[in-house]
Design goal:
Number of helices: 10
Bound molecules: fe (ii) ion
CATH class of the largest domain: Alpha Beta
Number of domains: 2
Structural class: alpha+beta
Radius of gyration: 19 Å
Strand order of the largest sheet: 1-16-15-14-13-12-11
Helix content: 25-40%
Shape: globular
CATH architecture of the largest domain: 4-Layer Sandwich
Low-confidence stretches: none
CATH topology of the largest domain: Metallo-beta-lactamase, Chain A
Mean pLDDT: 96
Distance between the termini: 37 Å
């Protein structure tokens, strides 16, 4: 089952944002926000925090899963509005979120999207412009944050991006994969593989996650998977990722044309609700890298 509406998913975990861009508030004695969101959802986030009467002073950490614009776009606003909140990310993401080229790219996507959605560029007189993100806690394998009653354990899970980090709350069996694990799709039985950066790394990361006892999968896109769908997510993800590589290899044998193959697969991804808003040229570039990586052509 998938929970797609924001609200409490357990007494200690509040799903914030929207079904497309999800964030989570993990409430131990201290709170941690998981997911860096997008600039154009900041007003919604503030209303939700008001609605659930969240004491912002208790929010000590904000975990950024990876340095893609749709996972860290709200962070510059949150840092300015709540300077006591400390940013947690992988060392690699910390590096990328302070690189002028990456900052410029994310700033440009932010501005374009705010314009396209006709949203203001400021909320509470705080600019929504993307800017560098200083990371107070660079974390990786073996690191954890003690929130008092709940623990956030971290795993480096490269493959979707170089800098991907996943989090896990052992006390709840709750897993926060961001984009590191394939996405479920209501209309398809298959999981949608997101091995954008490196196919082998993606599989190795999934293998690393196999021992986790997972009861809920809290994605940053699409909502929260529960029940047996959640418990079986890692074995099913491994199977889907390996099968997709086989399909890519077989189709490449048939077509003998990398350009055609990428076009065909990008078309299939573009038809999925999750990717409909991604410009086709961008999606073609992303899928092109995934296909070349799957074929060992990088
Ligand atoms: Fe991503
Ligand atoms: Fe994403």
């Amino acid at each position: 089952m998938i929970i797609q509406e924001p609200g409490f998913i357990t007494p200690q975990v509040l799903f914030l944002g929207s079904r497309n861009i999800c964030m989570y508030l993990v409430m131990g004695e201290q709170h941690a926000m998981v997911g860096g969101g997008v600039a154009w959802e900041v007003s919604r986030l503030e209303s939700q925090l008001d609605h659930y009467r969240v004491d912002r002073e208790k929010i000590r950490y904000l975990v950024v899963s990876h340095a893609h614009y749709d996972h860290c776009g709200a962070v510059p606003y949150i840092m300015k509005k709540y300077p006591h909140i400390q940013i947690v990310a992988s060392a690699c993401a910390a590096h990328i979120m302070n690189k002028p080229q990456a900052i410029e790219m994310m700033r440009s996507v932010n501005r374009q999207t705010l314009n396209a959605l006709k949203r203001p560029h400021r909320v509470d007189d705080i600019p929504l412009d993307f800017q560098q993100i200083p990371v107070a806690h660079p974390v990786g394998d073996g690191d954890h944050l003690d929130l008092g009653g709940l623990t956030l354990r971290f795993f480096q899970t490269p493959g979707h991006s170089r800098c991907s980090l996943t989090a896990y709350i052992p006390e709840l069996g709750m897993f926060f994969p961001a984009d590191s694990v394939p996405f479920p799709d209501e209309e398809r039985q298959d999981l949608t593989v997101s091995a954008n950066h490196d196919y082998d790394d993606y599989l190795t990361s999934l293998e690393k996650l196999e021992p986790l006892a997972i009861r809920m999968v809290a994605y940053e896109h699409g909502g929260v998977l529960t029940g047996k769908d959640a418990g079986s997510i890692i074995p099913r993800s491994l199977e889907a990722t390996r099968k997709q590589r086989e399909r890519i290899r077989n189709r490449y044998e048939e077509l003998q044309d990398l350009g055609l193959l990428v076009e065909e697969i990008a078309g299939k991804y573009h038809a999925l609700p999750l990717f409909q808003l991604v410009p086709f040229d961008t999606l073609r570039a992303i899928i092109g890298r995934m296909v070349r990586s799957a074929l060992g052509l990088l």
